[in-house]
Amino acid sequence: xxxxxxxxxxxxxxxxxxxxxxxxxxxxxxxxxxxxxxxxxxxxxxxxxxxxxxxxxxxxxxxxxxxxxxxxxxxxxxxxxxxxxxxxxxxxxxxxxxxxxxxxxxxxxxxxxxxxxxxxxxxxxxxxxxxxxxxxxxxxxxxxxxxxxxxxxxxxxxxxxxxxxxxxxxxxxxxxxxxxxxxxxxxxxxxxxxxxxxxxxxxxxxxxxxxxxxxxxxxxxxxxxxxxxxxxxxxxxxxxxxxxxxxxxxxxxxxxxxxxxxxxxxxxxxxxxxxxxxxxxxxxxxxxxxxxxxxxxxxxxxxxxxxxxxxxxxxxxxxxxxxxxxxxxxxxxxxxxxxxxxxxxxxxxxxxxxxxxxxxxxxxxxxxxxxxxxxxxxxxxxxxxxxxxxxxxxxxxxxxxxxxxxxxxxxxxxxxxxxxxxxxxx
Length: 426
Description:
3 domains; 426 residues; elongated; 4-stranded antiparallel β-sheet; Trigger factor, domain 2; 11 strands; 20% strand; Chitinase A, domain 3; alpha+beta
């Protein structure tokens, strides 16, 4: 086997591999042996016939296709090992010449990492933010529980602050066209909670059951949906019910209604514990993301454009799945964002490129630190995940090779990030 290698760009290599009859002969024999069990040759048991007799019984096109696939895979793998090439994506392979079983020449264009200078992550230090849960934080959860467990008494009077109203609503843009996601039926809204767009709840105070209220609101400049920022939307709201809330007394009976607690002190202690766990996880996640971002910023890394394009596609697919759960189409989403599909993808590229670089940096760190995932670690994680699912079908899914590989990759990422945190911790 001969290999001719050249660099097309800093992130793309080209290799031309040429194999002769001596190189190809063992591959043909291996393919024939693998197919022999499916061939019946008179006078021989299945799989025991001489290979030249097996060959006569086979569909020659099927044999050729299997042979070429096997040869390309083997010689490509051998070339990577021989040339010490580390591809980051599947190659584009073109067969340039093929004389059955005697000569094969193919070209492979291989995306690779270009210039790479990893930041010295062993000396980078980053303080972790402190996390504290105050009595006020616990009281806020208690207040929310009191409202959730409150008795709801329908009243005939006009709605006032701290009432719950059941509403139907629809939002329309300045062209009087309906806005996807800006409507709802039998929606319970606590007036004064601030859970809706600023100004929405205020417009319902003083309104009685059966009244249809119409009003316009300008969405905030920092609203999550970019397409609605600073946009004027007209809402048509029908008040169907006004409920006055009778909140329960803050006593041991209230604690028992809120959960398996014997006293209000026990309830507060549980709330504080859960808040500490939740905020601790968030602080840790924020810390890890910031640490990775700093290492990425300080590193030099040239990556193929194709990797970023692939990541943009993955992010777009995930976004589409989330929109489906929300009952919104991709076209409606793009319209709300005020972007074409190409503009949306262009806007996502910086984030996609950062994600790709972070992934490659983690892989490089794992290699340098000789971090591995042992079979025992993988099996323990899979058993833990199985314990979280009662559905037998879901448990079976976890044993599929592709899912086991995905779990192993996540474990590798966790262990590598933990190593970086160990270095960076102050």
